[in-house]
Amino acid sequence: MSELNKHPKRDSDAALAVGGEEPLVTGGHTFTTLTDKVSGIVETKTPPKWYLLFAMAVSGLMVLLGAIGWLVWEGTGIWGLNNPVGWGWAIVNFVFWVGIGHAGTLISAILFLLRQQWRTAINRFAEAMTIFAVISALVFPGIHVGRIWLAYYMFPVPNQMLIWPNFRSPLLWDIFAVGTYFTVSTLFWYVGLIPDLATLRDRATKLRKKVLGFFALGWRGGNRQWQHYEKAYLMLAGLATPLVLSVHSVVATDFATSLIPGWHTTIFPPYFVAGAVFSGFGMVMTLAIIARKIYGLEDIITIGHLEKMNKIILVTGSMVGYAYLTEFFIAWYSGNQFEVFAFINRAFGPYAWAYWIMFLCNVITPQIFWFKKLRRSIPVMFVASIFVNIGMWFERFVITVTSLSRDFLPSSWDYYSPSIWDILTFVGSFGLFFTFFLLFLRFLPMVALAEVKGVMPEADPHHYHSNEKPAKQSGGAK
Q1: What is the rounded CA–CA span in Å between residue 215 and residue 337?
Q2: What is the pTM of this model?
Q3: Dihedral angle at the C-alpha atoms of 292, 298, 301, 302, nearest 10 degrees?
């Protein structure tokens, strides 16, 4: 700690980017102090607070397992499903969690290809969040039909009854889209981890050193290894980028290919992608604010990083608001009485309360980020990020339930409300997510050390030379 305070002013000034921008790393960190700071989180004794949070997360996971066990025993009748609302909270939760997983790949892949250096402080745990959110999402396609023991029908594998999956089924589209997204995101996350695992390996002893050495794949940091690493990382970023746009487009197409008023619309794919990035950044913001405070990472995940994320939340929230208004315009312009009724019913029907919660959280709340003072206020951005995720869950609820509950025939209309088992399954999915996320925080570096070091002034080969005072010259030039 004493080394950190030796030359804070000098190092802070040195950290300023070209053009006088805010430094990406503050606090006078060098490569050594940065490594000690991030690695120390993993290497030190587990704090009691972590055990408390982990116990709460595992309790939520047990609730999920219990709810699924009862579902398998009793069937989907334990949920609040009725006729015509055959899609309830299970599908709402699936789309919600898939959306949450979009920010990690956007930060890692698209911002990497655009050479946005500020992404380096937040990309590691954003990528981890993506993987754990997709795992939480994948629970729901398997359980929402009740017959979990037949889940292998969703995969194109031969079976004893020679029944092959129906490739026209949206359920199969989801399996391919989300499965591919999960695979590429996991590879991308792991490849980025390799140099940092080697750093931890070199600082470890005994069994821990052997385990980390196995996963570090013999990394020594040589020039040839760095060349291969950067090529692999670039290729995976190129593969992951179209997935950010395609995965939620496929999920949106599940709705758009139906004939139900309110679903049968071509705006869904781009609208869902914007909403997914919006909700994903909301979750990253929530987790980043908590993690940086608990682990003292304010020098690495700076207020400048958070402000840039708030700008993206503002942009994507405005895009979502534009999509909401466009839906109403297109319904009116189409002249289709069923389509017009579907949207009037959303805003003023029995689920109007859900619609206006959605509109307030997703459209009105992000507009506060037009003001720099609010954009840089930790309490404001934390509350706003919570509202964003609440609003995006309600968006999925409004789209799914309002269109099904009142379709073409008034004789088949019915009001849908969740049962206690719907609620417990949803709460339990958070237990699954946070169990994985807390294990990640405890055993792996939450900040991408190698990437953060690459954007520090110390990485410039001329850094030390430029800080030296030029020698006095006499008798003319040498």
Answers
A1: 60
A2: 0.85
A3: 140
